[in-house]
Amino acid sequence: MKQLQHISLSILLFFLLRDCKFVEGATFNFVNNCGGPVWPGILSNAGSAKLETTGFQLPPGGSRTIVAPTGWSGRFWGRTGCSFDSSGRGSCSTGDCGSNQVECNGAGANPPATLAEFTLASGPSTQDFYDVSLVDGYNLPIMVQPSGSCMATGCTVDLNQKCPAELRVANGDACKSACEAFNKPEYCCSGAYGNPNTCKPTMYSQLFKSACPRSYSYAYDDPTSTFTCTGGADYIVTFCPGSTSPSSSQKSSRDSSTSSTSTPQFSGGITSSGPGNNNDDSNTSNNNNGVMLQDNSWLASLATGDSASAPTKRPKYPLLLAFSLSLVLLL
């Protein structure tokens, strides 16, 4: 009888240890390398749990960690030029979510805004999907850096300096998408252009793509823009990665010691090195067998590469492991 108990507990322990790392989901570490404050906004997709906050202030050189549960999906973005009074009411010049508060409370970013989108793995045999999207325009450089050997992605250049006059927001702090600027089906991938066979890159999306080759430039830009990572990864989301802030008004001589998180320096599109990493996007397979998320972001599975500077994976729930082992030893 005692031997049967040992066998039963061993089987239980196996399944607990196999799945425990997915109980927590993922940790997102937000880092502000900009010369001024950024107010990250968070929007969970329909059916996903609300995270501990939907918006907060991040000072220059600051960082904050947010934990998301397994299977979570949603998006992050940075708001700039925000002003809030003593009662906490106010607004932002770019990326504003219309809540008139620091918390976005279930509201998304008003375009134009650079978006970092995620769908976390739902179990040990599934994958995270992630991308940085310019489909709703651009306001800040963002880099997403996964743990382990998964590939970093993002738009790390200042597109505001490259923005055509017809897409430029009046004060030059953001750049509209062609869809937002002209509201035509061929730019919005709607109506007769509502599928990947008819909606093709335009000169505006190609301008975005040439500057940020691993970011979504239009709705069906899947093959070179969506990345996957084995479930259990953690992520660093950096605003203004590298040494150049998005505008001269935000440039800072901040000493690098003020931030404990190191990020690679990029000049242009994402670059990385390592086995299986090819920075020529023309060699990426044009396979559109992606899955449609509830926010209409197409996700296609891509091969992952090495990112030597990525955060290290950390063990999750060690107390559960210790408790389970104690049960086996006591019996």
From TrEMBL:
Keyword annotations for this protein, in alphabetical order, are: Signal
Pfam (any one): Thaumatin
The record, for CDD domains, names:
TLP-PA
Annotated region described as Disordered, given as residue ranges: 244-290
- Composition bias of kind Low complexity appears in 244-263, 272-290
In terms of InterPro entries, this protein maps to: Osmotin/thaumatin-like_sf, Thaumatin
Q: Where is the signal peptide?
A: 1-25
Tell me where on the tree of life, at the top rank, the source sits: Eukaryota
- What protein does this entry describe? Thaumatin-like protein 1
Specify the species. Rhynchospora pubera
